Structure formats: structure tokens, C-alpha cells
Amino acid sequence: MARKRRLTGEAALEAAYSKTDHAPLLEAWGVTLSDDMLRLALTHRSFAHENENLPHNERLEFLGDAVLGVSVAEQLYREFPTRPESDLSKMRAGVVNMYALADVARELGMGPYILLGRGEMHTNGSDKHSILSDTVEAILGAIYLEHGFEKARETILRIFASRITNAPSTGLNMDWKTVLLEKLSDMKLLLPSYETSASGPEHSQTFSSELKVGENLQTAGTGRTKKEAEHAAAKAMVELLNGPAPQAQKASGKATS
């Protein structure tokens, strides 16, 4: 018996998209979208590249990122009128970073709806922070195109309401280990490794952490706990990476409250 031919191109896209009832996803978002727009928003580049280089969601992601950024920035400006710009920038980062967006995607149950290539499917791509966060932005881009800015903004403020309200506690006390992971992902660098040790009497120990990224980048941090020391080392690494051409450099830091 002849082997069944695998669908490719538009036929594969339609078949993969049609397998799933998307009503629960749209209900979770509280919006309506045409099938054409929703299908595009859910098509990851890995699926597109395996199927004759179909259009994928990165252009929508670009739009959604812009709409999300300005919507959150404006709401923070209005909700926290006494905060300086430096605080508002950190608060916005706490609301719209990759990990926060991935959490939103998980809360909305988005993972199973994303159309992925076989490689990403085999490596649990539907739960990867980057893929989830990018798809959230793509959906926002789709809402903007079909319904306009006000509807997109209303959707953002509804879905991100608690995160915006809690921004002073999440944004101003940055989880530097998370920030570092995001930075390394953006720069396509290796994951960090921490080596942490304690010194001094048990009731009053000082922890020291050495952090390495690859062979050339190294920072250190100290603190009253292991967590504080690693936090300080991660903060120092972020600052190092933000500096001019970080190569074979070292930096150190202390835990900050």
C-alpha cells in the first residue's frame, strides 16, 4: 500500500489549524478574530519554514509589542502620578518582559493552539517562554489590525490589570536572575552558571557567588543568603553586558535590598 503523502504548504496549515476549536481561546482573550488573522497569529516560524515558507506571526508580533508597550506605559503614567521616569521604566519592564508574557499565555491556555514545526513540538516548544510571549504579542497585533487601537488597549488593560497594579513591587525589585536570562536570550549567549559558597560562623554567614557565561564573561556577588549573592552577581552581569563590548571581563557586586 502506498504511503500517505504528507500535506505541505497552505494545505498543511489549514489542516493543522482546523484540528482545534479556537472558541475557548478567543473566549479567554475576550475578543473575536477572523480565522485568517487568528491562524496567522498562531503560526510560528518553525511551522512556516517546514511548509514552503508560509507567512508567520513575527510581523504581527512586531505590531503587538508596540501596542503593548505604549498601552502599559500610559497606564503606569496615569496610575502612578508621583513615580519618576526611572521607576516607570522598571515597572514597565516588570509587566511586559518575556517571562511575564509567557505567564499570561499559560493563564490563557495558549500553548496547545500554537502551530509549531516538528522540531519545536518534540522539544516542548508550546511551553517555551519565548514562543509563548511572542504569540501573546502576535495576538495583540491581530486585535489591533482588526479592531483598532482602543480595543487592543482595552484588552491589554483587562488582561494585565493585576500586573500593572502590582508593578511597583515586581518592577522595582527586579529579579536579576530572570532579567539576566532574558538578556542572554536576546544576545544569543550561553546560559549562566553559578558557584556559590559560604564563609563565617553559621549564625552570621556571608555568601559569595561567582557567575560565568561561557569562557569569557565572569561576575561575582556577595550577600547574606545564597539567593542574595546570586542576585547580586546576576545584576553585575547585566550591567557588564549593557556596557561597551563585554569580552573577557569581570565585575562584582553586592546584594541590594
TrEMBL record:
Domain DRBM: residue ranges: 175-243
List of residues binding Mg(2+): E61, D134, E137
Keywords annotated in UniProt: Cytoplasm, Endonuclease, Hydrolase, Magnesium, Metal-binding, mRNA processing, Nuclease, RNA-binding, rRNA processing, rRNA-binding, tRNA processing
MF GO annotations: ribonuclease III activity
Gene3D superfamilies assigned to the protein according to its UniProt record, in alphabetical order: 3.30.160.20, Ribonuclease III domain
Subcellular location: Cytoplasm
Active site: D65, E137
EC main group: hydrolase
EC number of this enzyme: 3.1.26.3
SUPFAM superfamilies in UniProt: dsRNA-binding domain-like, RNase III domain-like
Cofactor requirements of the protein: Mg(2+)
InterPro entries referenced in this protein's UniProt entry, alphabetically: dsRBD_dom, RNase_III, RNase_III_dom, RNase_III_sf
RNase III domain segment(s): 36-148
The keyword Iron-sulfur is annotated on this UniProt entry: no
HAMAP family xref list: RNase_III
Family, as annotated: Belongs to the ribonuclease III family.
Function: Digests double-stranded RNA. Involved in the processing of primary rRNA transcript to yield the immediate precursors to the large and small rRNAs (23S and 16S). Processes some mRNAs, and tRNAs when they are encoded in the rRNA operon. Processes pre-crRNA and tracrRNA of type II CRISPR loci if present in the organism.
Subunit architecture: Homodimer.
Descriptive protein name: Ribonuclease 3
Originating species: Corynebacterium suicordis DSM 45110
Gene: rnc
